[in-house]
Design brief:
Elements lengths: L3 H43 L4 H10 L4 E3 L4 H11 L4 H10 L2 E7 L2 E7 L5 E8 L1
Antiparallel strand pairs: 1-2, 2-3, 3-4
Helix pairs in contact: 3-4
């Protein structure tokens, strides 16, 4: 009996199973990464923090302010440059609220929206 087909088949099957396991791990990591940032921002929003407290708190933990667009043109530029697949969402929310601040938080970019009193009212985030 020739063992070559059995050995080749076993190697191919092992490679396919390894690739599938690797793909599943990567998919889980992406879901976990997004849900962690979403939960973090949702908890922050519930506290109704001011723009100064948010800026200082994020700065202290290593998430610097990278943009503070003022006016529609600056907002469009920031959304186009940093908003990626959520550019339209960033523009819509940015037009609704008084101030937008953009932070780099590890592997994400946060767009945080504040009302006239400087209180956080909404957020968006995208992969950096």
């Amino acid at each position: 009996m020739n063992r070559t087909p059995v050995m080749v088949g076993s190697a191919v099957l092992s490679a396919l199973l390894f690739a599938f396991a690797f793909w599943m791990g990567a998919a889980y990591f992406q879901v976990r990464r997004v849900s962690t940032h979403a939960a973090r921002l949702e908890n922050l929003l519930k506290k109704s923090p001011t723009v100064d407290r948010v800026t200082e708190g994020l700065r202290m933990e290593g998430s610097p302010l990278i943009a503070a667009p003022v006016g529609p043109e600056a907002l469009r530029e920031a959304a186009a440059r940093l908003g990626r697949e959520k550019e339209a969402e960033v523009l819509a929310k940015g037009k609704r609220w008084w101030r937008t601040r953009v932070f780099r938080a590890g592997d994400m970019v946060y767009f945080l929206y504040f009302d006239e009193a400087g209180v956080m009212r909404d957020y968006s985030f995208v992969s950096a």
